[in-house]
C-alpha cells in the first residue's frame, strides 16, 4: 500500500502520525504466527527459557530519502502532484521522530541455557508492490488505494522438513461477483509446498503441494468471493461456538491466555527501536 507524504502526516486510518506503524497495523498477527510455529515443536527438553528481540525500522524520514518530492513530481506531473502535496520533505523529516514505522525487520531468537535453538526473521513492509497510479485518496482507505496482497512464509524444521506458504495477488480491484482461481496473481492465490526428508521418514515423496481448495474442503476457491474472508468468518464462528458451549476452552485455535508471549514480543520490538534511536543496545531479552 503506497501512502503519499501528505497522507503520512494527515491520514488517521492505519495511521503513522500517532506514534505507531506497520508492526501495530498488522504485524501482531505475524508475531503470533511465529510463536505458534515455534511452539508447535516444543517438547520437554526442547523449549526455550529466554527470548531475544532486535528490530530495525524504516521511518517516514528514511522513506522520503528513497522517494523524494522530485520523484513524485516526475511520476505524477507537476500540476497533479504539486497541487495535492501540502508538506515539504523537510517538514515531514522534522516531525518524523514522533511518527510510526513504515517498514520493520525483526530478528527473534529463542534461547535455551544461553544458546539460541531457534531463529525467526520477520519482515513487515508497508512500502511494497502496489497498483496505485493516482494521487487523490478515495473513500476506501483499505482496499481502494492500490493495495495488493503479497505474503510469504518459510518454516524450516531442521533436516526433516521445510514448509513454504505463498500468497500473491496481481490485482487491487477484486470483483466478488466473479469466480477466481487459486493460481498465482489471482485474488485467491494461496499455495503450500511441503518438502520432507522422505527416505528417513519412510514416506513416498519429498514434495507435496496444496492449493487453497485442497486445504479447506468446506469452501471452493472457484466460487465468487475472496477466499481469505472465509478465514475471518471461521474466527467468528469459533468465538460463537465457544460462547454457545459447542467448543471447550481447549478446543479453541486461539485464546486470550495464549497471547501473552506474542504480546510481549510486540512490546519488545518497540523497546528495541527506542533503544536504537537513543544510542543504546537494541537487543532486548526476557525470561
| SSE arrangement, N to C | HHEHHHHEEEEEHEHHHE
Biggest sheet descriptor = 4 strands, antiparallel
By helix and strand content, what is the structural category?
alpha+beta
pLDDT < 50 stretches: none
The overall strand count is 8
Strand order of the largest sheet: 3-2-1-8
Structural features:
single chain; 287 residues; alpha+beta; four-stranded antiparallel sheet; 10 helices; 8 strands; 21% strand
Task: Explain the overall architecture.
- The structure is a single chain.
- By secondary structure, the protein is an alpha+beta fold.
- It has one domain (5-286).
- 33% of the residues lie in helices and 21% in strands.
- The chain has helices at residues 5-10, 22-39, 60-66, 69-76, 78-84, 89-95, 198-201, 212-215, 228-243, 260-277, and strands at residues 50-58, 103-112, 115-125, 150-157, 161-168, 191-196, 207-211, 284-286.
- Strands 3-2-1-8 form a 4-stranded antiparallel beta sheet. It has a 4-stranded antiparallel beta sheet with strand order 4-5-6-7.
- The longest helix is centred in the N-terminal third of the chain and has 18 residues, at 22-39.
- The protein is globular.
- The mean pLDDT is 90.
